[in-house]
């Protein structure tokens, strides 16, 4: 039976591209996200391997556990978990921040990643084999103006990834963390609450990373020999030197 990869946030951007990339390596794909219609579209398009979809909100711990418990036997031997679901919500100073935005970022990026991992890990532990790839960010490596809580959520992903690696080393489970800089996805549209013009301006004047770039990196990480773990990768567009230092053409 072919191996199984579980990808969160597969309805868009990095997660969607990763589902396609891992399928190229022969993984059967469990694709998850909230938007069931997008998951259905993915299933229609991704025909070279079997695809199983689970629509749930990672903020809801009961729904997350229930969804993963509902997997049929032939989908339970998960070898790769890509903890990708996440977003920034808003971008403002701490004194002008919105509690709802803060809740969303902490609940999705931090607690959601934990809920999914908590439900999937027992399936990996049964086989003493598995690879967890957490999607952090350059925002988990440096704090930038008005990034406060989003950065905090990604610093938490960094700490959780290190903690997972320490606790799971004796179990033979690899834990990797991918920390991208600016990737052109729906990320900024979500951050700026549907303001497409403002979102597009983030990626103007330079060549941003594309979701495919990150998907290929994830594909590389999970295809290393069993004794090799790429623990952490910071990946930036060539035009980006740090979180707020981007060389843009006028
Ligand atoms: P997108 O907005 O394109 O994709 C986000 C994905 O997360 C969607 O599939 C969305 O699915 C899913 N998601 C969001 N909220 C929830 C939720 N409550 N429950 C379940 N799924 C959810 O953004 P990206 O592809 O860019 O983002 C993917 C990851 O990459 C995120 O963790 C982000 O922080 C990180 N990242 C992004 C960078 C960038 O510049 N784009 C740079 C560094 C890191 P749905 O809405 O259907 O639920
Ligand atoms: C997304 C990249 O720079 O907007 O994590 O924080 S950034």
Task: Please characterize this protein's 3D structure.
It comes from Pontibacter toksunensis. Keywords: Oxidoreductase. Belongs to the short-chain dehydrogenases/reductases (SDR) family. There is one protein chain. By secondary structure, this protein is an alpha/beta fold. The protein has one domain (4-185, 209-237): NAD(P)-binding Rossmann-like Domain (Rossmann fold, 3-Layer(aba) Sandwich). The chain is 41% helix and 19% strand. It has 8 helices and 11 strands. It has helices at 13-24, 36-45, 61-69, 99-125, 148-168, 187-191, 196-202, 211-222; strands at residues 4-7, 28-33, 51-55, 78-83, 130-135, 173-180, 183-184, 209-210, 232-235, 240-242, 245-246. The chain has a 7-stranded parallel β-sheet with strand order 3-2-1-4-5-6-9, with helices on both faces. The protein has a two-stranded parallel ribbon with strand order 7-8. β1 (4-7), α1 (13-24) and β2 (28-33) form a beta-alpha-beta unit. α1 (13-24) packs across α8 (211-222), α3 packs parallel to α4 and α4 (99-125) runs parallel beside α5 (148-168). The longest helix has 27 residues, at 99-125. The protein is globular and about 50 Å long. The chain starts with a strand and ends with a strand. 42% of the residues are buried. The model has no long low-confidence stretch (mean pLDDT 98). 2-hydroxyethylsulfonic acid binds next to loops.
């Amino acid at each position: 039976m072919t191996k199984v990869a579980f990808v969160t946030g597969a309805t868009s951007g990095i997660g969607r591209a990763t589902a396609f990339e891992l399928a190229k390596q022969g993984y059967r794909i469990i694709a998850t996200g909230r938007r069931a219609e997008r998951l259905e579209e993915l299933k229609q398009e991704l025909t070279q391997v079997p695809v199983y979809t689970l629509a749930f909100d990672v903020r809801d711990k009961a729904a997350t556990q229930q969804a993963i418990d509902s997997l049929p036997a032939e989908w339970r031997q998960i070898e790769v978990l890509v903890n990708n679901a996440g977003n920034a919500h808003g971008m403002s100073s701490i004194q002008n921040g919105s509690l709802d935005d803060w809740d969303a970022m902490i609940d999705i990026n931090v607690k959601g990643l934990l809920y999914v991992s908590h439900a999937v890990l027992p399936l990996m532990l049964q086989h003493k084999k598995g690879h967890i790839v957490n999607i952090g960010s350059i925002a988990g490596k440096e704090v930038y103006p008005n990034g406060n809580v989003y950065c905090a959520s990604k610093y938490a992903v960094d700490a959780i990834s290190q903690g997972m690696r320490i606790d799971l080393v004796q179990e033979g489970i690899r834990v990797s963390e991918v920390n991208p800089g600016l990737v052109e996805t729906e990320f900024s549209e979500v951050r700026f609450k549907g303001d497409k013009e403002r979102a597009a301006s983030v990626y103007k004047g330079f060549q941003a990373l594309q979701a495919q770039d990150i998907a290929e990196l994830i594909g590389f990480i999970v295809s290393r020999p069993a004794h090799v773990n790429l623990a952490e990768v910071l990946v930036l567009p060539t035009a980006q030197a740090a979180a707020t230092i981007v060389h843009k053409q006028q």
